[in-house]
Structures are given as C-alpha cells and as structure tokens.
Amino acid sequence: MPQRSQTLLDPRKSPVQARSAVTVDAILEATIQVLLSDGLQQLTTIRVAERAGASVGTLYQYFPHKQALLFAVLHRHHLKVEQTLTQTAAASHHKPLATMMAAVIDAFLQAKTGRVDEARAMYGIVAELNTREAVREYETRCRAALVAMLKTATDAKFRDLESVVFMLTAAMSGPVRAVVEGGRPAKIVRALPAQLLSLCLGYLEQVKRKN
C-alpha cells in the first residue's frame, strides 16, 4: 500500500474531556479486538464502532477513516513501549552494565508481551500502513534513551555508542517479534528474558572498550 502522509493519518481531533478520552480508548480497544477476530482486511469502521458500543458518527468525530484509526492504535502502542523504556533507562543511569540491561530488557518485554494479542496486531498494522517515518521516529527516541543510559555505565565505555545501540535494539526486537508473531511454545517464552539478557550482554561485552 502506498505510504500516506502523516497529516492524513492524524486523528481528526483529540479528546479533551475525561468522557471523550474514555470513548476514544474504547474505540481503540475495539479496533484491536476486531483486528484479532476478523483480520486486518475485514476491519471496518462500522465493525469497530459496533464493538465499541459507539455510533459511527462518534468514531468519525475522531478518526476520519480506517487508516487514521489504525495509525492511532499503533501510536498508542509505540507510546506505551517508548515511555516504559525511556523511564526505565533514565532510572538506570550510573549503574553497572548488567544491572542496566536487566532492567531495560525486563521493561521492554513487559511492554511488548504484557499483551501479546495487541503486539501481534501492531505488526500487521505496520505492514498495512507502511508508516516508516513514524516508526523511525519512535525507534530514534528509544535509542537516544539507551545511548544516554549506557554513557553512564560504571563498568563499561563504548567508542561508537550510537552504532552499538542500533545493533543492541535490533538484537532485542528480533527475538521478541519472533515469539509474538510465531506463537512459540511456552518454554521458549519463559526462557526469553534470560536468553535475551545473555544475548545483549554478550554483545556489549564484546564491543566495549578494552582499555
């Protein structure tokens, strides 16, 4: 699908009152439910409105079309992951490398797999909308938080930290996506936190400055 401009994907308006915010949350949650039950191609604004217990007119007050609705769901998910990761990284400054990474990986996994159904739906939305610019901005902010954290590690220094963090986040994201999309056995899911920590720490130990 051709990439839509950011303006066309933005919500028509943002909720101001608490009641409006509840309505928007219900619509976004209903979108995820319809995605999972009916699939991306069968999702319509009418089905979402029915699932949310709202009128189509109410939905259109906030989201002018299906793509804007999907983008809002994706943005909410990215914002949750970003806030969790950046807050954890900020709280982990001036600690040993292993302590930092244990906290970050735990937070990342909680944000991404706390609701596996939601995370699985997000990958389909990214493919449908081709929102590379928005995803790139989200990833850039997450990497910046990790760069700032690793600069303060008490037992490790890195020469090219931006490149290191780029590889680090790729190493974190790949296995998580495989687990989320692939419906892996429970034993793999249980082993993921320790395995991911070993993977990331092994890489960081290899690339840190030796002098």
Structure in words:
The structure is a single chain. The chain has helices at residues 6-9, 18-38, 45-52, 56-62, 66-91, 97-113, 116-129, 132-150, 161-182, 186-207. The protein is mostly helical and 211 residues long. The chain is elongated and about 65 Å long. The relative contact order is 0.12. Residues 1-9 have low confidence and may be disordered.
The low-pLDDT segments are: 1-9
State the major sheet. Answer: none
Instruction: Determine Rg (CA atoms, Å).
Output: 19 Å
The level of helicity is over 70%
Number of strands: 0
- Mean pLDDT over the full residue set: 87
* Element order: H for helix, E for strand: HHHHHHHHHH
Tally of helical runs: 10
Fraction in beta strands: under 5%
Task: Tag the structure with descriptive keywords.
0% strand; disordered N terminus; elongated; 211 residues; Arc Repressor Mutant, subunit A; mainly alpha
Q: What's the arrangement of secondary structure elements?
A:
Blueprint: H1 6-9, H2 18-38, H3 45-52, H4 56-62, H5 66-91, H6 97-113, H7 116-129, H8 132-150, H9 161-182, H10 186-207
Helix pairs in contact: 2-3, 2-5, 3-4, 5-6, 5-7, 5-8, 6-10, 8-9, 9-10
Short description:
With 211 residues, the chain is an all-alpha fold. It is built from ten helices and no strands. The longest helix is centred in the middle third of the chain and has 26 residues.
